[in-house]
Amino acid sequence: MQALLVIDVQEALMKLGDFQADVWKIESVIKHFKATGKPVIFIKHVEDDKESLFYKKSRDVEVYAPLLPYADDIIEKRTPSAFFETDLDDVLRILDVDHVVVTGFNAEYCCLFTAISAFDRGYKVTFLEDAIGTVNNADSYEMPGLNICGFAGSVLHWSRTTEVVNYGEYVGKYALK
Questions:
Q1: Residue 79 neighbours by CB under 8 Å, 6+ apart
Q2: How many whole angstroms separate alpha carbon 56 and alpha carbon 58?
Q3: Cα(76)–Cα(85) distance, rounded to whole angstroms?
Q4: Are the C-beta atoms of 9 and 26 separated by less than 8 Å?
Q5: Which residues are within 8 A (CB) of 23 and not within 5 positions of it... i.e. 6 or more apart?
Q6: Which tens digits make up the pLDDT trace of 14-49?
Q7: HSE-up of 123 (CA within 13 Å, CB side)?
Q8: Please, what sign has the CA dihedral across residues 33, 35, 39, 45?
Q9: Which stretches make up the Isochorismatase-like domain (predicted)?
Q10: Is the pLDDT of residue 143 over 60?
Q11: C-alpha–C-alpha distance, residues 27 and 152, integer Å
Q12: What is the pTM assigned to this prediction?
């Protein structure tokens, strides 16, 4: 069975840019999962540092409010991997999940690390390249012309460990099943 992992779609990140196109695609995939009875698991990053964007007691650390009602479960993480020192693997095994679909933020950190960690644990992984966003841009990395989400997807694609598709390909392959 598939499960959707919605990574770090949190109030704090939504305030850092216009991510409505990303959120629309994420919500569309969520609706497909809900309609087919497949689990939707939200992951949120939390930190103890009061100065952090993800301070655990801040209202901004919460899952982005318009998507919160879709959550079957919310798992807190403290590192880029949603699997490291969390109960995500246990939750997925209890649900008999063997295939995770990764969406959310930030492509080059939490989404990438979680996809790799899922593969390492034996899951089939689908990375929805254009239903994944980032608050960073080419200037953040001093690499003119860099498409960060595309780059993260390429790394996973060329590793031959992860199915990398865009939203349209996902809909064509999975949404009718």
A1: 85, 113
A2: 6
A3: 10
A4: yes
A5: 9, 14, 64, 66, 67
A6: 888 888 888 999 999 999 999 999 999 999 999 888
A7: 29
A8: positive
A9: 3-139
A10: no
A11: 21
A12: 0.86
DSSP letters, the chain, are -EEEEEE--BHHHHTTS--HHHHHHHHHHHHHHHHTT--EEEEEE-BS-TTSTTBTTSGGGSBPTTTGGG-SEEEEESSS-SSTTSSHHHHHHHTT--EEEEEEE-IIIIIHHHHHHHHHTT-EEEEEEEEEE-S--GGGGT-TT--HHHHHHHHHHHHTSSEEE-HHHHIIIIIT-
Name the average pLDDT for the chain.
85
Q: What is the mean pLDDT of residues 150-160?
A: 66
Mean pLDDT lowest for which of 74-78, 81-85, 140-144, 162-166? 140-144
pLDDT at position 141, please? 47
Query: Please, what is the end-to-end C-alpha distance for the chain in angstroms?
Result: 12
Q: Do the Cβ atoms of 74 and 21 come closer than 8 Å? A: no
> Tell me, what's the pLDDT at 117?
94
Greater confidence (55 vs 27) lies with 27
| Confidence tier at 83 by pLDDT (50, 70, 90) | very high
Domains belonging to the chain, first-starting first, are 2-175 (3.40.50.850)
**Cα–Cα–Cα angle for 89, 154, 2, rounded to 5 degrees:** 30
